[in-house]
Write a structure and sequence with these properties.
Strand 17 and strand 18 form a beta hairpin. The chain is mainly beta. About 5% of the residues have low confidence. Strands 3, 4, 5, 8, 13 and 14 form a six-stranded antiparallel β-sheet that branches.
Length: about 425
């Protein structure tokens, strides 16, 4: 073999290697300029989210009438925003045009592995023992978590083929919240909880296991709720276009945080202790802090929504003259594609904005039903005297409006009450 042929062989071999991924399938699209922009948000709203609440919600387990026989009172005060910290490690996001995985499913054929780059989000880069969270530091983790809880951050991804997708899965490796504390059986303080994140130790509690299964789930059989965090009932249309397009994914976390309490048994000593931690409220199913079977199952309380649009082919809706009651301090304007069923107690809408804002942006052309959603009660607790952050109450559809690209459609709501 002469030198020229040898050089050509080396180049061809190199190209084959870089054009094949770990599944043995070509990844030419990964080398092209991607037109997709995946925006991941930690909000109920699709635009103009509320600012953070100044304090967390507090679970009713902290009331003195609930926990009896304690010499000391476990502090039941809300956690101020200035004391809250969040650390989220996402392995990847997958999507599928199908909606069910069975024992015979070939995963490489089922999934589109379109967003495989790990993303680390963190409130700060400092760890214990004067260490640093290196991945957060080098990959703008602090900036990303701020964006995540506001207008969203751009998750690296490659283009998807056009068509309707039903199954979306976000693989959340860790979700750590701070502060978290443990208490002795008499209610006295025991210790601050410490967790591992980015191969370092930090103050906080990894809530992932608490939100993996829902109450009454059989963990051996039922669908996991956080790894992955998923929906299999989407009707997500990726447009057939040569233009840049957005895939917006929303995970409702912001302003949903509650201070929880669980009773547990210390493995080494057999002593009863109490765990206090910060996590999304139990709006779907009330957990009892001392329920031996279900006290650790909060899965299903983290909800997601997804939609796709071409930015320069969208319009907006401006809401005017809303004279209806909102039923709470925090309410939202929400839209669903006209005719689609909306269960405000079990899902988050196609698009929404905070009640202090009156414009919903980036809506593809079509007809939309408008709702007002409100947090009027603790739905799962059957308590109407306080709230849990989830807007479980919605008006009947207040109006239907047609949206055209490049046009702001106005709608006069009149009296639109949360029922």
């Amino acid at each position: 073999m002469n030198k020229n042929n040898f050089s050509k062989s080396i180049i061809i071999s190199f190209l084959i290697i870089i054009l094949i991924n770990c599944t043995g399938k070509p990844i030419l699209s990964e080398l092209a300029n991607s037109r997709i922009n995946v925006i991941l948000k930690g909000t109920y709203e699709s635009n103009n989210p509320y600012s953070w609440n100044t304090d967390s919600y507090v679970d009713d387990a902290y009331s003195s009438a609930t926990i009896t026989g304690l010499t000391n009172v476990i502090p039941g005060n809300a956690i101020p925003l200035v004391d809250q910290k969040y650390y989220i490690d996402i392995a990847e996001i997958r999507i599928s045009k199908q909606n069910e995985i069975t024992d015979t499913t070939i995963l490489e054929d089922y999934w589109h592995y379109f967003a495989r780059e790990r993303q680390v989000l963190c409130s700060e880069t400092a760890a214990l023992y004067e260490k640093q969270l290196d991945s957060c530091d080098t990959n703008n983790g602090v900036e990303k978590i701020n964006e995540f809880f506001n207008e969203g951050f751009s998750y690296p991804a490659v283009d998807l083929e056009s068509g309707k997708y039903q199954h979306l899965a976000i693989y959340v490796r860790k979700m750590i919240t701070y502060p978290s504390k443990s208490y002795n059986s008499d209610g006295s303080f025991y210790d601050d909880i410490v967790a591992a994140f980015d191969n370092k130790r930090i103050n906080g509690y990894d809530i992932s296991s608490r939100y993996q299964w829902a109450a009454a789930d059989d963990t051996a059989e039922d669908t996991p709720r956080l790894f992955p965090l998923q929906r299999t009932d989407l009707s997500l249309e990726i447009p057939e276009t040569d233009k840049n397009y957005v895939l917006e994914i929303r995970v409702f976390l912001k302003n949903l945080m509650m201070k929880h309490l669980f009773e547990y048994t210390e493995i080494d000593t057999g002593e009863i202790k109490y765990l206090s931690f910060l996590g999304p409220s139990d709006h779907k199913a009330n957990h009892q802090f001392n329920d031996a079977t279900n006290k650790g199952k909060l899965g299903g309380n983290i909800l997601i929504a997804a939609r796709a649009y071409v930015p320069d082919e969208t319009g907006s809706i401006r809401i005017i003259n809303d004279t209806g009651a909102d039923g709470s301090v925090m309410f939202y304007y929400a839209v669903m594609p006209s005719g689609e069923t909306f269960d405000s107690s079990a899902e988050i809408p196609y698009a929404a904005t905070n009640g202090g804002n009156n414009i919903i942006n980036n809506l593809p052309e079509g007809d939309y039903d408008i709702y007002k959603t409100c947090d009027k009660s603790r739905n799962a607790d059957d308590i109407t005297s306080s709230t849990d952050g989830f807007p479980e109450t919605a008006s009947l559809s207040c109006a239907t409006v047609s949206v055209q690209a490049g046009v702001e459609s106005q709608v006069d709501l009149g009296t639109c009450d949360c029922q």
